[in-house]
Amino acid sequence: ALAALIAFYLYLRQSTRLKLAGEQQQHALQQERDLLETQVRERTASLAQLATHLQQVREEERGHLARELHDELGALLTAAKLDVARLKSKLADHPQEIAQRLQHLTETLNSGIALKRRIIEDLRPSSLANLGLTAALEILAREFSERSGIEIATSVEAVDLDESGQLTIYRLVQESLTNVGKYAEATQVDISVRSYSNHVEVEIKDDGRGFDPQAARPSTHGLAGMRHRVEAAGGRFTVASRPGAGTRVTAVLPQLAAAVPALA
Fold first, then answer.
1. Integer angstrom CA distances of residue 160 from 18, 236, 238
2. In the chain, where are the structural domains located?
3. DSSP labels for 188-246?
4. Cys-Cys crosslink for 235: which of 66, 179, 242, 253, Cβ 3.0 to 4.6 Å?
């Protein structure tokens, strides 16, 4: 009987030790998991901050390049056009071939000036600063339609957003239209901006060939950049599409009263 009691005592002692060792191991594993989760959150937050900073730097560089093109290249093209006009007036009585070449040069310079203006608008939309979001989006849609031949319908309400928030919407629509022109093979695009009491909803919908969002890489068609830009502004970004059924890009952004700092 004594031997049995001793054996039972040793068994209980060993079981207690094993249980304690198991609990210590589980605790150590939980600490390791918590540490890894903390590191992942910190790294994710750091990467998000870096992406936001890079986006801001990109916009600043775009603005700088737009000003350089406007001031330097614009002045050169305008001066060249004036010189051609002077030559045309002085060579009015010279052979027709010279007049034709000067006319061709004038047309080429006009095309260069128009291209310069379009590049500047793509880099830093002056219409957004000068005319506001509604007019800027309508101009963007009209010019895209003229270039691509795709019908664009716009329904844009006035919104209570700061300059950064308006630029977020403009870039979202701009990138979406770029994707439509490159990939969608669409004939119709609908753009809507609706203003509610505490948020703004933006939707760009096309009738193109669509795609499978689950199969697409996160960076496909600039979706990652659009998502980050919207989320950095405190909003939500979604893409709904399937092959043969078009694509709908939606963003919901907080109105100015509830907005967080967005991308510049």
1. 64, 17, 22
2. 2-121, 132-258
3. EEEEEEEE-SSEEEEEEEE-S----TTTS-TTGGGHHHHHHHHHHTT-EEEEEE-TTS-
4. 253
In sequence order, the β-bridge partners of residue 253 are 200
CB 169 within 8 A of CB 200: yes
User: What are 190-208's pLDDT values in tens digits?
Assistant: 999 999 999 999 999 999 9
Q: What is the pLDDT of residue 221?
A: 65
Burial of 184 (0-12, 13-18, 19+ CB in 10 A): buried
Residue 52: both structure tokens together: 């936001």
How many other CB atoms are found less than 10 A from the CB of residue 259? Answer: 20
Q: Tally Cβ neighbours within 10 Å of residue 251.
A: 26
Query: For residue 71, what pLDDT is reported?
Result: 84
The answer to whether the CB of 253 falls within 8 A of the CB of 233 is yes
Distance between CA atoms of 220 and 112, rounded to whole angstroms? Answer: 32
CB-count burial class (<10 Å; 0-12, 13-18, 19+) for 183: middle
Give the CA radius of gyration of the chain: 30
> pLDDT tens, 108-122?
999 999 888 888 888
* 33 pLDDT higher than 80: yes
Closest CA to 114 of 137, 136, 146, 159: 146
Bridge-based pairing of strands 236-241 and 199-206 is unpaired
How many Å separate Cα 61 from the centre of its chain?
Answer: 16
Q: Please say whether the structural domain 132-258 has been given the CATH code 3.40.640.10.
A: no
d(CA 36, CA 40): 6
